[in-house]
Design goal:
This protein has two helices and 14 strands; from the N terminus they run H-E-E-E-E-E-H-E-E-E-E-E-E-E-E-E. The strands form four sheets. Strands 1, 2, 3, 4 and 5 form a five-stranded antiparallel sheet that branches. By secondary structure, the chain is mostly beta strands.
């Protein structure tokens, strides 16, 4: 249990209304929702909402919130408010909801994710989980590493830079050592996008080197190179 403070947007399911913070309805529920959501701090996205259901209705005036405590394991809370000079104890349940991106269609490996490929769904925070990507902007321009079904949450690590080097396909090896720049033909032993580190066989010497994908069918190797037999 912990005491909490901070205003944010709220979703008042307990009053059968979905209203912004400044809406002139359900002042007690609105204030409780603000305080409850604050307990989660900066780990919760700015557009998070909290669904509040009071254990019993309260129509009195709210003068101040003395304290409020949330049990994040069960979603239950207890609050003490000041109303017309007296302390009133309230309790209920709260469920935090966040917007999560999901594909609107099946996206295959190699395709580039665009804004039109995504929509958002609202889920409780415990269902969303930390293992899924929470920002649509973070997905645009990337490519799936495996097929992404429509309507499913997107796991962290399941997307990356578009594949521009294909396994077992020819690539240009660019050797850089100070001012010296050399190019050679190679065969990629791994696929990768720009910025990925992959292994490539130098076709002329049959040695294997490790380099960074810098563009379409191009792998850069910096500094001294230690040949390895395949």
């Amino acid at each position: 249990m912990r005491s909490i403070r901070r205003p944010l947007a709220v979703l008042l399911l307990g009053t059968v209304l979905a209203l912004p913070l400044q809406a002139a309805a359900g002042p007690v529920e609105s204030r409780l929702a603000e305080e409850l959501l604050a307990s989660l701090g900066p780990s919760v996205p700015a557009d998070a909402q909290v669904a509040v259901t009071l254990g019993r209705p309260f129509d009195g005036r709210l003068d101040a919130v003395r304290d409020i405590n949330l049990d994040p394991r069960t979603g239950t809370f207890q609050a003490r408010i000041l109303s017309d000079g007296r302390i009133v104890e309230l309790n209920g349940r709260a469920e935090v909801e966040v917007a999560m991106p999901v594909p609107v269609r099946r996206i295959r490996p190699g395709e580039i994710i665009e804004a039109a490929d995504l929509t958002t769904v609202r889920l409780s925070l415990d269902r969303a989980g930390s293992g899924f990507i929470s920002s649509a902007d973070a997905l645009i321009g990337l490519s799936p590493r495996r097929q992404m079904p429509a309507g499913r949450l997107i796991q962290v690590g399941s997307v990356g830079a578009p594949i521009v080097v294909q396994r077992n396909r020819p690539v240009t090896l660019v050797y850089e050592d100070g001012a010296l720049v050399l190019a050679a033909r190679g065969r990629a032993l791994q696929e990768g996008g720009v910025g990925d580190v992959v292994r490539v066989m130098n076709i002329a010497s049959s040695t294997i080197v490790t380099g960074t994908v810098t563009g379409a069918e191009t792998v850069s190797v910096n500094g001294p190179r230690i040949p390895q037999r395949p």
